Amino acid sequence: MKRNTWQREAVREALGTTDGFVSAQGLHAALRDGGSPIGLATVYRALSDLADGGEADSLQSMEGEALYRACSTDGHHHHLICRNCGLTVEIEADAVETWATQVASANGFSQPQHIVDVFGLCAACTRATTA
Ligand SMILES: [Zn+2]
Ligand SMILES: [Zn+2]
Ligand SMILES: [Zn+2]
Which of 73, 89, 123 is the last residue of a domain? Predict the structure, then answer.
């Protein structure tokens, strides 16, 4: 149904202007800062709709929080995420694809899927912490 369409559009747009992964709370705060009256529950639902529809990537932070991002590719890919500033790099990981397929079939598993995201400190944040 077309319920809450403007909210969903607002969330989609806000996500598109965000570089890295953001939590629903972070995106909600940004929308409110921009003057939107949108509610947090609506942001949560819109984000999970976008993720379900393949319009956003989602992952869990090291703290177990759900994070979202409108990725530039809808193909299978992995992420490098700076846990300090949120900078995100989309990466291919051929070695991971090969390994996942091999280890699954070695154990008699078919249709293997995997989620691999790497958290670390980006170059700028590394410089800032060691300066
Ligand atoms: Zn992505
Ligand atoms: Zn960083
Ligand atoms: Zn993969």
Answer: 73
Round to whole Å and give the CA distance between 83 and 8: 27
Ligand 2 centre and the CA of 80: distance in Å?
A: 11
- Tell me the pLDDT tens digit for each residue of 30-61: 999 999 999 999 999 999 999 998 889 999 98
Ligand 3 center–CA 114 separation, angstroms:
6
pLDDT band at 4, cuts 50/70/90? low
* Both tokens assigned to 98: 């090969």
Distance 34 CA to ligand 3 centre (A): 36
Q: Which domain holds residue 83?
A: 76-131
Verify that 115 and 130 share a domain, yes or no. yes
Distance 73 CA to ligand 1 centre (A): 7
Compute the residue count for the chain. 131
